[in-house]
Every structure is written in structure tokens, then in C-alpha cells.
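Newbie here. three chains, one complex. Structure please?
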Amino acid sequence: MSALPPYATTGQRAWYYSFRVICGLIFFFLIAPIVVIIPLSFNSQDFFTFTPEMLRLDPEGFSLKHYRDFFSNDSWQSAMWNSLKIAPMATIVSVTFGTLAAIGLSQPHVPFRRAIMAILISPMIVPLIISAAGMYFFYSRIGLQGTYIGVVLAHAALGIPFVIITVTATLVGFDRSLTRAAANMGADPVTTFFRIQMPLILPGVISGGLFAFITSFDEVVVVLFVGSAGQKTLPWQMFIGLREQISPTILAVATILVAISIMLLATVEMLRRRSERLRGMSPS
Amino acid sequence: MKMTKLSALAMTTALVAPAAFAEDMANEMTLVSWGGSYQSSQDKAYVQPYVANNPGVKAVWDESSAEAVAKLRAMNEAGNVTWDLVDVVASDAMRLCDEGLAEEINHDEDLAAAPDGTLASEDFGDLLVSDCFIPQIVYSTTFGYRTDLVGAEAPTTVCDIFDLAKFPGKRSLQKRPIDNMEWALYCDGVAKDDIYDVLGTDEGVTQALNKLDTIKDSVVWWSAGAETPQLLADGEVVMGSTFNGRLFSAIAEQNQPIGMLWDMQSFDLDGWIIPAGLPADRKARAMDFLKFATDTQRLADQAAYISYGPARASSAPLVGKHAELGIEMAPHMPTDPANAGNVHTYDYEWWADNRDDLDAKFQAWLVK
Amino acid sequence: MSDTTQNGPVLAADGTPLKRSLAKALRMQKLRALMLIAPLLLFILVTFILPVGDMLFRSVDNRIVQEVLPNTVRALETWDPASSEIPDEAVFAALAVDLKAAAEIKVHTKVAKRLNYENPGLSSVFRKSGRKVRKWDVENEGPYKERLIELNDGWADIELWRTIKTYSGTRTMGYFLNAVDMKLGATGAEVRPETERIYNTMLIRTMRMSLIITFSCIMLGYPVAWLLANITTRSANMLMILVLLPFWTSLLVRTSSWKILLQQQGVINDVLVWIGLVGDDNRLVLINNELGTIIAMTHILLPFMILPMYSVMQTIQPTYLRAAKSLGATNWTAFWRVYFPQSVPGIGAGSILVFILAVGYYITPALVGGTKGTFISNLIAYHISTSGNWGLGAALGAILLAVVLVLYWVYDKIVGIDNVKLG
């Protein structure tokens, strides 16, 4: 429905516009909870409440104190660094293992393919609380509970299904004769992988990696069990913030993260358009 | 050999931990507490001073007291105790002590005497409810109400909670049977002294649940201490139970239009335990900290940040003004005679025996 | 040479029979595929499957009774639980020995806790007696039957002995029975009294609400996915940011945001009162009930529905629709008979993903669901991190997992797990 054709009837016209309105409302539903936290993060009070001062737009009702708290408070700062140390490592682990396995799975004639697939997808389908408790006991026994490595491994396991799903999806359309052609011309398997296969499945790998990153970055159940106070991540700190202490600091953190994600998403989009322009493609 | 959080990474990669410190006390301790203003009062009153006195020592907070019993059981089973001192309520301390998960303490030897020489066991008196428990504070679970939303007449008794006609609107109660069952029976005409006898029978449980049924549709159930103050601030509930210190900070520090209803407040204790089975160096550090953190002055200092009564008799005269607001703290203490007119004495022993059973019945009632 | 090719098997270039050579190549291929998969398989087995298996094993594990009360269990072998007599002195003497040994290392409370799940009140009998028996001489201070009963008359209760006898094995079905609101009595499985029934209700509620959430996601996700797939890539990418933004925002933050929006003094009610749709004194109850959970969870899971739908719809050729219309189909017929069937795999992929994720969530329902809008996962979390009844938590988890696995299997049969696409 790129545009309404000039010969559209009144009914079609009405449907066209009401459909757009419906979609607009759904987008509004998606975005409203995020929009609402932004003004509240500037609340001068320590509650998640729109105060009368805020509604009157009285400057008294607003303050930056929750932002100051985030940047000056040691526990928030160390939580942020922990998150930034854990999520990328977990992502690297799951993307590396996951991509290799997805390539293996996409070969013709893989024995026990269904069973293997089910095992690899399992971290996504086992209810999180069961995984968390199980990991807690098992990791304690092998000395991984309460360590950085333990949290990274646990988060990597949770991210793997996303990598497997996205990469196998891109490999479905992969033309196997390309690798054969490369091998024919004397490329060894490693070169073939990095020069031929990797660039083609890269979008799948990146999107799987993003899912894995977000899984770790936003994960609170498993880290509460597998981590100890030294690995307190941002979601953990937010969880405490919600439970034990009324502090809109978590809204300030969320606002900062939303701003960063908007910038990231916009940058990606801009880069994509730029590369399209450079390659002489017109945006479809 | 000591294992700090910082060296944990180095350890797993190098597989060998260097015995960097030859002292017999560990240099890092993980303190488990409740977070929020309570934890910050502990931090200001004795953790920061202790760290200042002992350079090189690092204290890490873990806000897991709410799950302390289950987690300590799991740590014990896995043989991997990562906590050094755990702040728990008295009944949890008793359970942990019974199960051998907490270290037994010789109160007189291990803790500081009062300035006048009174032994610790005498100074703490009746509050030493368990051999493993070192009490810090007396707190209470009581009610706060929105002064502007309850109408012309403020609630005066706990039974006003059950009076929907006089005080319409939602109320918040803790999502557990403890206290709620007792209040329900008390307001259903059971004499204060008979509450636990009645609650011990199936009919008594039914009676309490039936009483709670009368307000069930108007109850918002909370499980974390921060919820009731937030609900009151939003005007989402007109009255609700929570810990008295939370209400104090909402009223005095946040200037919320909230009033206190002290009637039938439920006293409880909160204090430290040391997990059983710590390595010698960590235990030595924990004991050293404990002696400092529970002395007369430190407990009195804590009361300058939060309205909980210090557990030592000798600390009471030292309680002064709020450290930041400069208001007298004594009238805000749950133990103040003006507030403690009609109190509910919570029976630890009874709950230790019946908790699992009543929890199951209460949970089943909740989802009905 | 020529006669071998005529009579013998076909040979490959290196002279081996072609059949064998092909089989060898196939084997190599399989081996290479497995070599690529092996590291991850091993990784998942160690970091995930073993821990989960270990956890689920707790749902049948009952070694604690034999470990703590070995003599008592042996002595009880000859006692008939159907009789109306409590066991004799030999059993009590064995119990005294066990109890003393256990109390010295404080493990009697563990068995007390275990048995208390099956027979409430039993815990205090063990705890109170343990404290005293610790100081006894258990060799020659009998008779122990009278002494123990004198210490605590709970020991004279035949139900206590039936419970110990019933749960003296190292494996138990007790937790699973409890998880379906039954219990193992002396005469076999029986239904629990009505006041203690809870888990069946919760399981059904979890399934019903997850279905509603999945359905809401389909209804909201389909139009958006359709729009995204049928506008220019440039606009689609811009709108995609609106879909991904919530996805990138912390779950905890989105949930608290819904609290701010939905509560009675919240933004939505304020707006409705302001425009006069509802009166100030009968504001809508949108939170702390099923509705709250459904709204918040639909929002949280919607991107998981839109992304697979979108990727399927992108592959549907718009020419099919035009062809249908040029053949005289109305807009609706063209959509319903041509477009919709092709988009079904997307709906399937999204639905299974949303449903599976929904049944496992517990933080959001705990925060916005009140008592009517919580899931079975909330009870699992309660048993694992609060009540400490890990066996029951594991049994409930195993049941939930079984349901999810059946769904996964059905899905894999019908759609195939390879057809799930995320973005």
C-alpha cells in the first residue's frame, strides 16, 4: 500500500485512513510507557508520581538530582561498568559458538538435527526461574557461582538461541555453490569462511548478536542467582531500586539508555542509507 | 588464601590465588542487608567509620536480606558461602540458628560491653532471642494513612483498616500471613492474649481469613518495603502497613501528607548473624566488625538516620536528633511510650512452628 | 581396464568403489557438521542442560530422610502403617540414636522441614525434641518410647509415623502430587483439602492468560507488521525504531512505567477523568488484576510477535495480491484467500515465541498482577527463593517445562523451528 491509487472508492479511502490510525494507535501503545518515564525522571521528588508542580510546569517540580545521583553514586556506577563488562563478553561467546554451530546445522545431512536443535534452543524455552535456580546450584558446585566468568557463561547460554535462530535463518538462503567455487579456486576453509560466507551471513550474525547483547544487558533473574554482590549489574541495581528503595534514579538511567538506543538505532539507519547511496542503490 | 571479588577474575584465569595478604583477617567483607534508607543508616553509622578506622578493608553490600534464609540454605548445600555478615529479622535468625546455618555467638565475649561495664548479654537483655543473633534495632510494622484522603476523622485503631464504610478506598497489606492474621482476629473480637491459641486451630485460621475476606477486594498486597510509601504518595491507597522507618522517611524527609497509626503495631527485631562455616580469616574480620558495629555508641548513631530503636538499653539515652533534619528522634521511635500504648507482641516460637502451614493456606486463599 | 568397469562396481577417481567413496564423503560431511556443532553443544550441555537437569532431579529426590534417620527407617520396615498402633520401643530407640546424632550437627531440622511439607506441625516436634535429645545418653537410658512421648506428645500421633514411613524412600512422588494439589497418604494418593488447593488453578490460569496475551499480540502485531512490510524500506526502518525501542528498554523500567500509567491515580485514569469519560470517584481498575498483567505483558512481548511476522510478510510478493484483484477478487477476498495464508508461518512463529516466553515470566506479573494476575512461575519463584521448598518448585517447574516442550514439539512438527525468524 505504497499510496492510495487515484481510482480508490470512498470505502477504500476510509479503510486506508482508518488503518493508518489503527497502526498509529498501536505504535502509540508501544511507545507510551517509554515516553512517560522521561518527564518523571526529572521529578524533584523521590516518588514515581506526577506532582501538581510538574503538571503546572513549575520549574520547582523538576530537577536533575536523579541524574546527579546516577553519575555520583558508586553503586550505580559500578553496576553500569559490570553490565558493560559482562554483556559484550557474553555476546562474543554466544556469537562465536552460535555462528559455528549454525553453519554446522545448515549443512545437508546432519545426524540428530532435530534433537540437537531442541537442545540448543532450550535456554529460550526453559522458564527462566528454573534455569536460574539450576545454574545456581550447579555453578556453586563447580566454583563458578559468584564469579564474573560464571555470569558471562550463564548469559552466553541464554543468548545462544537467538544467535542460532537468526543465523540459521540467513543460511537458509545461502548458495552453497559459492563456498565450493571458493574452494575450487584454492581458498582454504578459514579463508572461505571469512571472505565468502561471513559477509553474506553478517546481517544475521549482527542481529543475533544484538539479541544476545540485550538478553544479557537486560537480564535480572539469572544474575541474581549466579552473580554475587561483586557482579551487580544495572538491571540488578534497578531491581533493588524498585524493591527496597523508592528512587526515580532508575527512570533517569532508563532515559539515558533510551537516548543511547535512539542514537544507536539512528546511526545504524544513517550508515545503512549512506552505504546504499555510495553503492548507487536508490532506497526502494 | 583470600578471595576477593576483585581477585576472583584473576583467580579463575590464573587458577592460583596469590596469598597477597599475610594477615589473619580478610580484607573484604560482603554485608547483606535490606537496601534503602535502612542500609544507608547502617552504612553511615558504622560501616563507613569502620572502613575509615581500618584502611585497606572493603565492604560490599548485597541487598538480599529478603531471601537470606533460602539463599543461605543453598550456599550451605553448595558449600560456597559468599556472605560474611547477614542482616535478618529475628525469626529468620532463629531458623538459621536451628538449622546450623548461622554461627553461635558468645555474646559477652564477642561483643563490646556497655560504657559503664554492663555485659552485652545484660545490655541487650530479652532481645537476645537466639544464640546466633546480634540484634541492632527494634522496628515495628504499623500503618500509615493519607491525612488528606481519609476524611475528617483520622483512623485511631487498627480495626479501622477493616472498616470500609468509614474509610473507603484501598489499603495495602503485606503479602504474608504474619501480622495480618493476628490483626484480623483481634478486630474480629478475639482477645489479645488468645490470638495465638485461636490461630492454632483450623477454625481460627478460617475466622481470620473470613475477616480478611471482608476487605480482600480493597487490598493491594505488597512484598517490598518501598511499596506502601509509594502507594500512599500516589494516593493509590488511603492506608497501608509498612515498617515504621519507611513511613518516617516519607513523612519527615519527603514531606508527604501521611499520618502514623501506631495502634497494635507489631514489634520485631532486626540484627546480624554470621553464616556458619566461614574460613578463619573471613570469620575473624566479621567478628571484628561485629564488635565495633554493635557497641553502644554505634547503635545510638544509627538512630540519627532512621527511626528504629537501638537494641541496647545503654544506647537509648544517647539517641539524639536526626543527623540531617535536626528533629528529635525519640518521639518517632516505635518504643516511645506515646506510640507503644497498645502493641501486638509477635510470637516468634509460634510462627517458627506454624509458618509453612499458614503460608500454604494463605497463598491458597490469596489466589481464590 | 575396460572389463573391470563393465563388470565391477563403478570406481571413483582414486580407484575406490564410487559407492564407498560417496559414503565416505557423506560421513566426512556429517563429521564436519558435527565438529562445527560440537563446541556449542558441549557448552550448552555444561552451562545449561546439566544445571537444569540437576534442578529437576530435586522434584523426586528424597534422600534426606534416609540420610538423617537411617536407623529409624530400618526399624520402621516391619511396622504396618495401616495398624492403629504406634511403633514399638525398638523404633523409638533407633529414633533417639538418629535424633541425637542429627541434632549434634543440626541436620534434624532439615528432615523436619522435609516432613513438615507433608504433615504440617511435624517440624516443631522434631525441633523441640532435638534440642533435648542432644543431651541424652542414647545407649542405656531407655525406655525411649515413654521418654520421647513425655518430651513431646507429637510422637504418640500415629499420623506422624505414617508420614515418616510413607516418605522413607530415597525417591518420592510427593512433590509432583503436591504440584497437582494431591498428597500421598498412607493409603495412596489423595486430593488435598479445598483450602490448600492452588496449583491446578494457577496452571490453568497461566495457560489461559498466556493464550489471551498471545492473541492480543497477534491482533496488535499483524497490522503493524503488514504496514511495515508494505511501505518503503526507508519508512519501514524509521517505524522499526518504534518497535525496537521498547525492546531495548529495560523490562523492569517498562513494567514500572505501566504501573504509573495504569494505577487508579495514574496517567490513563487521570486523562479519562479529565475528558469526562469516567467519573473521578469510579476510576477504572486497570492494575493489580488480570487486566494489568495482560496489558503489560502484551506490550513487553509485542516486538517478539512483530519481528517474525514482518520477516515472513517481507517475502510475500505484492504481485500475488494484484493478480488476485485483477482476477476479480474483492480486497477482502484477496487478503483472506491469498495474502493471509502466506503470512500464517509468521503468525505461528510469533505466537509460539510469545506463548513460551509468557508462561515463563514472573517479574512483570508480580509487579502489576496483584493476586489475580500472577502466574505459576510466581509460585515457582516463591518456593525457590522464599519458602525454600525447592522440591515443590522443581516439580512445578518440570510440569511447566513439559507443557512448553509439548508446544515446542507441536510447533516443530507443524511449522519447523527453522522457520522462526527474528528481524
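Moderator note: DSSP finds 14 helices and ten strands in chain B. The mean pLDDT of chain B is 89. Thread marked as resolved.
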